[in-house]
Amino acid sequence: MNELVPDIDYDVPLPASAMEALPELSEHEELEMRARTVKLISDLTGNPIEPTEAERGKALEVAQKMLGNKTTAAQLSIYTNPTVAYLAGLVAQHDCLIVKELADLKTYVVNKLVAETEHPDAKIRLTALRSLGEIDGVDAFKKRSEMTVKQQSIEEVEKELLETLEKLEKRTIDVKTRVIPTDVTDVEPQTDANQT
Q1: Which residue from 13, 107, 138, 152 has the least number of CB within 10 angstroms?
Q2: How far apart are CA 22 and CA 26, in angstroms?
């Protein structure tokens, strides 16, 4: 029977500890990893995760720090498993999408604006109507400029240019050139007919 021996890289040093072997994780990634581990242990042992009021308060405090970017990933290891699980739930709620698609949000906004057009206050009605007019698709207040592109052959373009030049040539006038002196001493004083 043949022995199977895997290829071994002899030049690669082994990490000193398991922590050193782990990849760098962001706070969010480490929190998710810890929460999944806590849930897996809870599922395997059959012990439910029930954080106490103090652990919930601590999780809220950590969540506020995380939102303010005031904590580091290494600090998550000091909290109890229920605190980490509750914190992961808070972060997941914060990161979830309120609406699945932007189209749903647009529909919601349009519906609310339409409802506001019936408000008794004229200022609110006018603001709602103005906002409705600016929505894509309605475009009541957009200024548009249209450009028509006309495809022509080179011969047609040359013909149009020659016609335009002929029209301009007909408008030209004959001009006689005259030298205007730049030095004041070269100019003869003119006498006015009314002067004696």
Answers
A1: 13
A2: 12
